[in-house]
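Lecture 7 notes: from sequence to structure.

We start with a single chain of 237 residues. Read the sequence below before looking at the structure.
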Amino acid sequence: MRAKFAILAVLIAGCLTPSGCAKRKSVIPRPPYAGDISGDSERLQESLFKGDQAVLSNQEIERILSGHISVADRRRLAVLGLSSRSLWSQSIAEADAQNSERLLQTLKSSPQLTQVRIMPALLIPEKRTVPYLREAAARFQADLLLVYTTRIQTFRRDRLLGPDEVRARCLAESVLLDVRTGIVAHTARATESIAVKKTSADLNFGETVAKAESDAVGKALVSLANELTAYLGELQK
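Now the structure, written as tokens:
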């Protein structure tokens, strides 16, 4: 009997050992993730897609990104607005003309700029891309080109009692282009709102809306000009 117990104990001990009855589960190592790049030598520094180099080569992009530009010596500024709208009354035309004048006067307050002019309509290219705009500014002998756009939203409120009211909001964006290098030196964004009520001097509520839009655009353009003059002022310090 004791011999049987001894044999049974030996069999149980053998099954519990790694080489016995109990089989170890094999662990399959997880393959490395393709995106796990730890070394700087393996870090991509250029595009691998040939189509990306149709406009700019990898070498040109590297030179642009690693280069340093300064517009502190740029003195002549051309201004170009890419947004337009139809004018159907003298008061609206006068309001838009005042907005352009206020924009120019604010820009001229910068000590860095010795010349600020509106880009002539005859020089505005049909294709309003950066290369064509840059060429037009160079023909105009401008060191810098300020391009801006405006988008307007209006919210009308018709009242049964009292004058109708309109709220206009203008979102303006600007890009300052260094004509010599084609590099964008500065960008700005401004949002301005204004509320106007219809008066007896307005021909109709449509003219009230147009006046509100002009006022909102004027405030937004001045905000853009102030941001640009502040940027140019920092360059002189």
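Residues 33-38 have pLDDT under 50 and may be disordered. Keep this in mind for problem set 3.
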